[in-house]
## 1
Amino acid sequence: MFTWMAFASGMLTALMIHLNGALARSLGNNPASVIIHASGLGVVLLLLSVRRFALWRPGVAPWWYGGGAVGFLIVVFANAGFLRLGVALTVGLGMFGQTVSAMVVDHCGWLGVPRVPFDVRKLPCLALIAAGIALMAR
Amino acid sequence: MIEAIVLALFSGVARTVSRLLNARLAQSIGVLPGTLVNYLGGLATATLACLTLRDASLWSAAAWPAVPAWAWFGGAVGVLFVILCNRATPHLSAFAMTLLMFGGQMVAGLLLDAWQHGGFDAVRVVGALLAGVGLAGTVKLDRGARSHLSITEDKSLISHQISDEGKRLL
């Protein structure tokens, strides 16, 4: 059950890139991201309308609120990728960028994450991912 | 082509940063309120980008009919993704979660591409499988490196690889 949920959430990511990309093709990248964030906001508001919630609690650092602004870059960059590369390649490249950057963050212990030093044995694995992506891009 | 590749890579880098920040926020105010803040921030930034770049096509009614009806629902699909992720994460290992999500992304991505561009390319499937094996190795090594950390910190890679902490249910 949860296995399928995880698999389905992955499929949703691909579907989302496809839908957002189609919108960006018709409206342009920036206007499309206005619509994308507004429609997501509408759904969250609908879900939250049935309960009480607070958007602030003591101890929350101001920069934790910056995730959405960075999220705008995710959408715009992914759309730009989709328009030239299609869904699968955009998703693959995004996964690679995410994995490598997460390793850098872990290695340096940035943003308060526990430090995990880089393991050189990961290099052949990364090379394999890059080779797979290159094969898809061919 | 190169430009598109670099941008797609950077969308992944941005995802790492954004998920780290969102995970922190979700930990203290909850997943759905955190998602609300995320979409508010994104909407504000997107609106600002439109205004500063004088991108007027959003308000020109001529562009609207060109949009396929289903293309309006990308944002809603994003919310559904956050909900599913947060349901599944506490019940699966970081290893299983990462690979299942990658599998789902690739199956749906390859199918959508095949549907849009006609025909199915076996070489691309082999490429996706190779990348999957590489990803499996990376996550496996990462799990080993983390085994000395406490249980609560154990899922920190996954928390920026996928969505926010699943321990915080809706």
## 2
Amino acid sequence: MTPQLDKKLLLQAYSTMRRIRDFEERVHLEFATGEIPGFVHLYAGEEASATGVIMHLGKEDYVASTHRGHGHCIAKGMQLRTMMAEIYGKKTGICGGKGGSMHVADLDLGMMGANGIVGGGGPLICGAALAAKVKKTNNVAVCFFGDGGSNQGTILESLNLASIWQLPAIFVAENNGYAEATSSRWSVATGNIADRGAAFGMPSAIVDGHDFFAVYEAAGEAVKRARSGGGPSLLEVKVNRYFGHFEGDQQTYRGPDEVKKLRETRDCLVLFRQKVTNQGELTNEELDQIDNEVKAEVAEAVDFAKGSPKPEAADLLTDVYVAYA
Amino acid sequence: MKSRPELLVGIVTNPESGRDIRRLLFGPSVFPTSEKVSMVIRVLAALGAFGVQGVLMMPDHSGIAAGVMRAVQAHCTASLDPWPEVFVMDQAIERSANDTRRAVRFMLDAGVRLIVVLGGDGTHRVVASECGDVPLVTLSTGTNNAFPDFREATTAGIAAGLFVSGKLDGSQVCRRNKRLKIRIGRHEEIALVDIAICLTKYAGSKALWDPENLAEMFVTFSECDSIGLSSIPGLLRPTSRDDGEGTVIRFDRHDPRYWLSAPIAPGLIKQMPIHSVEPLPPGVKFAVMAKCGTIALDGEREIEFTHEEHPLVWLDREGPLTVDVPKTLELAANQGLLVSRKRNPDPQQTSIS
């Protein structure tokens, strides 16, 4: 059952979701100017998933993300300004501007990184979870992946490995309905990714990813189970993304009003606001204040990124495994 | 869609049923899409054998209808056994209970004589809110259900086929079920098994499984061997589907009269703090005692209410009609409806001698 979230946690949840949303909406605008190198894949619309899961984690718990990883990074506690600088490819970025959007990471926060390899997070968190189990740290590891990733061998192998080793791992399938432009209705055999848990002897469930409280409750049980030695779980979060697979995607595979309707009816921030104000737990003024603070924080992050220097030629030979004499 | 045959049956399948958070907690297995497809195919085989000509099927996002259509196409080329023609409705999918509501309304407009429902208590509740007097054949696709039958789909399909054939008196094989109604302001909802009042403020992941915050519950019927919340009244004050009244139970963790061990979810037996157990006569409105919290309809937290709202609950006998499968088959057996003097060469005629 949903733990009775106190006011501090409710404010934290809203703030995290708002920071993700505004960050992504701003990256969407800035990418169109041509200043951001490489590809970006935006997480807007899926905020309740990252927030509802990661709020149960501490700094020592590990998260492996996807190519659509900004939301997971922000929920894990990364700073907006160093993330934005990384996406801009600037020297002040969290990875020195060398990773960009798809490789933004902060191991000090247990954030093993966004990942350009679809389904690449599964083996990573099996390693992290195995380390936690062997070292008896009581930590857990979470792998986010999408409906496309669910069809990759790496994820299926990881589900098997986590199950036979009974690792403290949580596999979170963020099913947003499309692997790039391919509908999951067409590409995911068994229809629901959660159905696959049974094949690996792993408990699984489906949760509404537009509802923070639903994700928070289900993820809380999965994390509790993992931390107490109960082994891995598979949680399928049904979500929707507001933008294309990547920025520039014309989204001809979506219905004409599909996103508009989603924004009108299944916006996790709007639903959250309705619920907490109806219950009298938070006021609109308190939430508006967060909106204003986040707006300023995102603007400052963009200014910081734009004003930061690019990496220098000499930086090409740093942060690599091979020493170039 | 081309013109549809006269003997038409609707099939509703809930792609989401059997996958709630309880699967993470106590070990019940997920009810897979592949098994739902298989159940529909078994229903089709039985309907076809008993003369049903057409089936209207609800579309879904998880591949149930697609799996059925693949099987239908394969069947057409591989077998002479009659199956009904299957029409998958052209309907946008929201991935919510609205999909079921719209599908049932469409089926009624199309003139279905019966609807086969594959789902849990919640699915049947949604169908019941729209189906009027069109009878249901209920099939459970989960491990925590009280309202739908947990039985082999083939026999359910035979009962459905016999009913639609008109060879049996519908009034003899159909049951008018009880239901609960709840009013919050101007909003009304129904439940077929139970309404539970929970003190948590948010519906969360919906399925109700933690007894800590349970304040009171209202039940239409409660069988001793049921699973889920209705097992609580089932073990204290059993009432059948045909009894005239239901039961009200109030819980009090601080001042219980006694504790009852009950299987409130598969794999979960909890001691429940019982404060009072009362009959719930039809038509009598009960005020919910909790000042705020969530309301679970048939095991799923659906409504959040505040101290400004004052929900009222009552029982009536205006629930859906359901086909009593054992009674249908018993009557059919007694009347010799499944017996022929010789093997009928025309498969369309094998059903009714």
## 3
Amino acid sequence: MSTFSGLNAATTALWAQRRALDVTGQNISNVNTAGYSRQRADMQAIGGSAVPAFYSTSSGIGGGVNANDVIRIRDIFLEGRGHTEHANNTRLTEEAGALAQVETAFREPGEYGIQSLLADMWDGWGDVHNAPDTGAARAQVIQQMDTLVGGLHFASASLDAQWNQTRENLTVLAKDVNAAARTVADLNQAIQRATQLGVPANDLADQRDLLVMGLADQVGGTVRQGKDGMVDVVVGGMTLVAGTSASQLAVSGTVDSSGTGGDPVRLVTAVGGYTVGAGGTAGGQLTAMNAIFPKYQGELNTLAGGLATAMNALHAEGFDKLGNAGGAIFDSADGTPVTAANIRLAVTDPDRIAASRIAGGPNTDNSNADRIAQLRALTDGPDADYRKLVVTLGVEAAVANRTLSIQSVITTQVDAARESVAGVNIDEEMTNMLSFQHAYSAAARLVTSIDEMLDQLINRTGRVGL
Amino acid sequence: MRITQRAVTLTSLQGLNRNLEALGKLQNQLTSGRLINKPSDSPTGTNKAMQTRAEQAAVAQQGRNVTDAKSWLDQGSTSLLQMLDMTQRIRDLTVQGLNTGAASPESQKALATEIASLREGLLNMANTRVAGRPVFGGVTAGDKAYDPTGAYVGTTVTPGSTVGTVTRRVSDSELLRVDLTGPEAFGSGADSLFSVVGRIANDLENSPASLDDDLAALDVAMKTMQGAVADIGARGARLERVEEVQIERTLTLKAQLGAVESIDLPLTIMNLSMQETGYQAALAATAKVISPTLLDFLR
């Protein structure tokens, strides 16, 4: 054992404590940095030589401390859980948002929705029933029906507009995801090089993990740990980032909201066009476009079709002011089945309103107007159908909102748990700082004391009697 | 368990947000005055509210129908009563004319002239119109029930049938007939009021012997008219009952809609202040938890 080995050990201690203090400084600086994982100087005792050799024996006391490694503290299982919960949260947010948009398209309950337009129209028919001979009553019912047609068009168009907007958002999101995937791959490469060189790449890894969490939010990406500190990002079974290479996503499928039945909107790989089972925001948007909007668009079409069928049947049985048989009152512009988008008023001449049920020349009978007005009270009539639609929507939206609020609690809890592991605790850093400071002082004192010891040996030994 | 300041911040923030969200919801309810602002606030409540609104609209329309029905019935009964008075006068004149021994041909002629002019008046009354339509004309597209000769030109109704009647929808289940056709009110053909009165005017001058038969026929016509007045009166009474029910229903529906859709003001305000207290407590707790660190105690 060398005479100066004690000094050497004290030096390593001084160096190690200073390094640990530096790391503490880094931690405190980044206490509020998003995605930062706390770091720790990994101290290891330097053991004495365990292999005895000729002239070289060890006392078994070590040679100080080694603090070369600075490690990042992070729980990859919690991170994985975070990816899943984040993806669920964004997906549910998107779905609840889509349902809220549908709710605004219907504007119920209130005085401006389709319900009140229907009521106004039935009132119009009631007025025709009261005064089938006056042009005013007949003209106003045509106006009321026209307003109802406008209301149906508006609701249908606003669902359509929301669909188009969502598809556009998905396209933008795909571009965003592609850019993020590219960056993750680049960072993977940098991390690989650093790891191979033995240089800590903690901050690069933090940056990358933040991006990966973003990918989890956007498309529901999950992570597979690779070698040399790299990670693979997997989306719905398809590898988006494999080590240092990233593949690209694209949006495919119909560009028209009516085409989701045969050609649903999909997220596919840019090369090969394989469908990717995306989660996260993209998953929610896909559900909105392929299920939610088409469902309510379809319900609205059924409502419009049912209204046209019921009223046309009754109207055709009546006779107009001149005694001619009444034809259809609603039709579609191109002769296709009536939908909320193409419904059109077939009768524009007030005299053509078939209020009478007595054939054979002009008369002022009003019984057909009453039959049409009484459609309002039918338990399976347009009003009841529309109420059913709105209630279904309300239930679905309420369930989505409740699920979302539960999910957001879970997500926050997981985030807090991740933060508890990887985040910086100022109290802890303070305590660490004190202990490193004390350790540094102690090591310095050790140097002094060895110095004094050597001084004793060198300067004062053999001077008995001098 | 290890806990960090950021973890505490995250969870406190979530709690604060939930508090604020509840506060916002209550505030929204208070300012809008409505419990249900979108279907998902309460799907069943939405259904009830929409149903009640639909019923309200129907009842309001029925209210208008009742008003309209009233004007028809009133006009019909007024005309009929006036015509009954005139017919009574004709009957008196006819009885006067029957005393053939006491009257000179000139006075008979004067009686005949008066009766003929009364007949004109009757015809005019029989053509009374409501909003442009003859009350006794059925569903005719023309504007007269009787032509100047006293022939009926309106449409007829087969007894027991509702085809060709003028009706008003006064409740969900009831269509009330508001008219009477000429033949129903005044008899038809040779027995109709106008034919009989025309005959009397003629017979006074030319064939006083037939006046006995004419008087009998006039009594039959008057009986028909009295029956018609009673019929219209009965319908008017029914209409009044319907109207009362309607007024009551309007109020009930309004109360129902209020109960479903509007907020209970004291309850909401109470909830709001409770929520506010909760929010302030949460804020105070957060402020206490977040601010101190070890730094406050080290020197």
